[in-house]
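Internal QA ticket QA-208
Title: Verify multi-chain structure generation after dependency bump
Assignee: T.L.

Test input:
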Amino acid sequence: MQLYYLPVHELHTMLAKRQISAEELCRAFFERIDSVEEKLKAYVTLTRENALEQAREIDRRIAGGEQISPLGGIPVAVKDNLCTEGVRTTCSSKILYNFVPPYSATVIKKLNAAGAVILGKTNMDEFAMGSSTENSGFFPTNNPWDPERVPGGSSGGSAVAVAAGEAAAALGSDTGGSIRQPAALCGVVGLKPTYGAVSRFGLVAFASSLDQIGPLTRDVTDCALVMNVIAGHDPLDSTSAPGQAPDYTGYLKNDVRGLKIGVPKEYMGEGISPAVKQVIERALATLATLGAEIEETSLPHSEYALPAYYLIAPAEASSNLARYDGVRYGYRAEGAADVVEMFMRTRSLGFGPEVKRRIMLGTYALSAGYYDAYYLKALKVRTLIKQDFDRAFARYDVLLSPTTPSPAFKKGEKMADPLQMYMSDICTLAVNLAGLPGISVPAGFVDGLPVGMQLIGKPFDEGTLLRVAYTFEQNTDYHKARPGI
Amino acid sequence: MLTIQEVEHVALLARLELSAEEKKMYAQQLGDILAYAQKLNQLNTQDVPPTAHVLPLKNVFRDDEAGEHLPPEKVLANAPDKEGQFFKVPRIV
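Actual output:
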């Protein structure tokens, strides 16, 4: 297989054995980027010179006899809502088109410390609001399995970079499915960690009680390796969970005997394409053969997750995005007579239609007279949704569902109808509302398009998710398929 | 559907200037989404406490010690307009 299609753990072995240098590896990835990027458009910014310099530094350390860490010299991509000191960070928004952060996000510092080579910043739906990367303020990203189709979103650029060999691994962020849904649609592994497991410091905020950073990788082993680098307490994030992160590779066991898997019937019902359902049923049969105990269960408030989410997330967003006013950074509209006119014009010209829609929706839900009826009501329903999961996890080790209701859809198909677009996250949203970990792993294909299986775990039990995902992967071949691009 | 006046009121609160066409579009779309959100009223939540946050963290304090901070020139580096050590904006009053 081509170098650019190998998983991180195999590339690490080659680097450690000096079969290849980090610089050669870095150049191989940029060659791949140069050959496919015009068709796919995964990146907003490439950091060629910085990357080569980082790679040469790793080579010097290897030459000096140093043992490199599992991500040392590995070419990675990061979503463009993660602050990178000295490198433009746009959130794919015109309002931040020229923003160069004066500091790096904690996860970026950790990647740097681990010796990872950052190739560039990936495209996304503007401010992570969207499920197709069509809401990017710059250009859409195309799915490598069929460039007429969307890659999912909002971390579409990161998913495409990993799926198409434009990066060995990537970071994304997930507020309602933004890691898992594009991972599913592009045929890669995507993990949204438990809320608080990974520091959000330096992640441009969308909905602060829901946002989490996580890895997109070629396989489950790579997912564990990236988690080992990015997870852990951070005093700079007051919502970061205390305590030490585990060694996630310790959970990579090919054994699900006796594990209890619940399948919420609401996630296999109306709205899920029959072909996707078939893929998931086959996956369940595989896991049953391997000794897992599988049972249908129920999360009775599932149908309320979408309306609750689309009040809570926009409400938090409307508050978080108040900071974009043209004063301290980013775009400022010219020619305003006074400061209020400047705010209004800057925001109107700087934000795209979906961001404005959510700011309007959130502002409405928080405004005088509507707060109790909409926002507070949604927070109470959030409690009911969380209690559904608590009850399910009293009986099951993990829950299993499709990641998305259908495989990748055609570009433009859902752009005219926001509610239709929001439905693509119907299987993932509740996980963020409850703060749980969720992983999507490749589980099969429908008409040549990848389908993802979602595993949902107890808080801070990424371990069991990784174990089930790893076992499934070791007994199937879906993660080895590569798009013909 | 929201009225155009309601859309204008919310836009002003959100500091957004909308074209006539945008106002019409958002009146329709926000109306649809809010109508969908009415679904939540099927649930009796009278005795249910709200969940604003999932982690049981409260009052996360750090030691009251001066740490490192960014120098003013770095803080101002992205400013669309500045003067000396200040962000510069159009007339306020």
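Spot checks passed. Chain B touches chain A through 50 residues (CB under 8 Å).
Status: verified.
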